[in-house]
Automatic annotation (TrEMBL):
GO terms for molecular function: metalloendopeptidase activity; zinc ion binding. Binds 1 zinc ion per subunit. Residues 456-493 form the ShKT domain. This is Zinc metalloproteinase. It comes from Ancylostoma ceylanicum. One of its GO terms (cellular component) is extracellular region. The keyword Secreted applies. The lineage of its organism: Eukaryota, Metazoa, Ecdysozoa, Nematoda, Chromadorea. Residues 130-325 form the Peptidase M12A domain. CDD domains: ZnMc_astacin_like. Its cofactor is Zn(2+).
């Protein structure tokens, strides 16, 4: 199956896509100091007071922050690499970050104008658009695959981590990456000061830098995430339901960088906020005193922020964004018939796998039953090395799913732990036809309630929280936070 057929237009969390011409000088450092880029930086910097006002906490939110901080251990942060241990640190040490949006994004004029307008009118005068797309969408997607080439400045380490990072995105999505320096639209991967990228496909040639300190697969995958259309997770329009900013710890010149998108410009496809996203910055990002600037509402996630691993929900979101094959389960069995491979290649193994990716979805709280109806004979070997189907029904969907490659597997039935089931078919020998049926089954048992709190006294801010924030019923806060602030009002004692 041709992946290009599966990547018709759609949308992603924190995505920005524009077809535009951004003229920069030949030398990269000069690019980052060009008049155009400095003007863009000034536009964003002009939002400082507005952003600071929005980040200033109400008494109720301050009470939440204080409670969250009580539940966070005081951890002395180590420093492993002299160049920096995060993108924000690396670019800060290079002095490049202060010229970039949120530390590692090169904005176009149009993108900067959108961000300023969002901050000015909070999206109230804008029509609903998916992600950050304009009238040029879907031309701003890499619908025919991502073309890239390595500049002579790219070291073997840069080439290695970029290639591996691209494979991580390609492994479980319908996006192809191919090295092609002659393609009309392409990414030049080179080694300059810092780690940075443009967001989405701009048209013609655009740059992605992996400088000194950026030579890790996680960093490369993060910058590739920008190039295929992601903004940072902490820019989601709903971020205040999941993280609390402590603006007192933020570097003064970084305050304006913590703008967020609006519902008019940000489409998250109904997917939850994932603290483990590779596109999320760390808890101490842009801190001037080493103390956290971002506190997750589930404080046990504080060390998870800034992950070097692409999350399951990021893969799901990029698949939806690019229109990869999504199937909605119902109460009745539905049938998925897949054929993958190359019949014209004959009866001999090929070097590479042909792969197709499917995502079976159901409403939140439901589970999905998947039944393998049929698989051809003649390819049943250990490890399913020549062809097979992988079905991911585990609670941890980062794990490899169950793989099948024999006709005797027909009738195997699996039930998912969640309302999403990724299915991958693959082949490198002739071609295979896989038939699967799927349907919705009922959800699981209710979650156990926490033990009663013997000190049943509400915090003084509890009444306001319950009245204005629907605090006790909110899914944004863990039961431990609710119990710490409102044990009596929320029914814990």
């Amino acid at each position: 199956m041709d992946k290009n057929e599966a990547s018709s237009a759609r949308s992603v969390t924190g995505c920005l896509r524009y077809k535009t011409t951004y003229i920069l000088k030949e030398n990269t450092f000069q690019k980052l100091n060009s008049t155009a880029l400095l003007a863009i930086r000034e536009k964003i910097h002009g939002l400082k007071e507005k952003v600071k006002a929005k980040l200033t906490l109400s008494p109720e939110r301050k009470a939440i922050l204080d409670e969250l901080l009580k539940q966070i251990s005081s951890i002395k942060k180590d420093h492993i690499l002299s160049k920096g241990d995060s993108i924000e640190e690396i670019n800060g040490n290079n002095k490049i970050g202060e010229l970039l949006y949120q530390g590692d994004i090169v904005l176009t004029n149009e993108q900067a104008d959108e961000i300023v307008q969002d901050a000015e009118d909070n999206g109230s005068n804008r029509t609903k658009r998916q992600a950050f797309r304009d009238q040029n969408y879907p031309r701003t997607l890499w619908s025919n695959g991502v073309n890239y080439f390595f500049d002579p400045s790219a070291s073997p380490a840069v080439r290695s981590v970029f290639t591996k990072g691209a494979r991580l995105w390609m492994k479980d999505t319908c996006i192809d990456f191919r090295e092609n320096s002659q393609a009309p639209d392409r990414i030049r991967v080179f080694k300059e000061d810092g780690c940075w990228s443009f967001v989405g496909r701009l048209g013609k040639q655009q740059d992605l830098s992996l400088g000194d300190g950026c030579e890790s697969v996680g960093t490369a995958a993060h910058e590739i995430g920008h190039a295929i259309g992601f903004f940072h997770t902490q820019s989601r329009h709903d971020r205040d339901n999941f993280i609390t900013f402590n603006v007192q710890n933020v570097k003064p010149d970084w305050v304006d960088q913590f703008t967020k998108q609006t519902t008019a410009t940000n489409e998250n496809y109904g997917l939850p906020y994932d603290y483990g996203n590779i596109m999320h910055y760390g808890a101490n990002s842009a801190s001037y005193n080493g103390r956290p600037t971002m506190i997750p509402n589930d404080p046990k996630y504080v060390e998870t922020l800034g992950s070097p691993i692409i999350s399951f929900y990021e893969l799901l979101m990029i698949n939806q964004h690019y229109g990869c094959m999504m199937y909605q389960a119902s109460a009745q069995y539905q049938t998925l018939t897949d054929e993958v491979g190359n019949r014209n290649a004959g009866q001999r193994p090929r070097e590479d796998m042909d792969m197709c990716h499917y995502w079976i979805t159901a409403p939140a709280g439901a589970r999905i039953e998947v039944k393998l109806v049929g698989f051809p004979k003649g390819l049943a070997v250990d490890g399913c090395q020549y062809a097979g189907v992988e079905i991911k029904t585990h609670a941890d969907q980062r794990l490899t799913g169950y793989r099948f490659c024999a006709p005797e597997d027909a009738g195997v039935t699996l039930v998912s732990k969640h309302n999403i089931v990724p299915i991958i078919t693959y082949n490198r020998f002739y071609a295979t036809k896989t038939v699967i049926q799927y349907r919705i089954v009922s959800g699981g048992q209710p979650m156990p309630q926490p033990k009663p709190n013997p000190n049943c006294v509400d915090n003084q801010q509890c009444a306001a929280l319950v009245k204005t924030k629907n605090f006790c019923n909110s899914k944004a806060f863990t039961d431990s936070v609710k119990q710490g602030l409102c044990p009596r009002s929320c029914g814990f004692c």
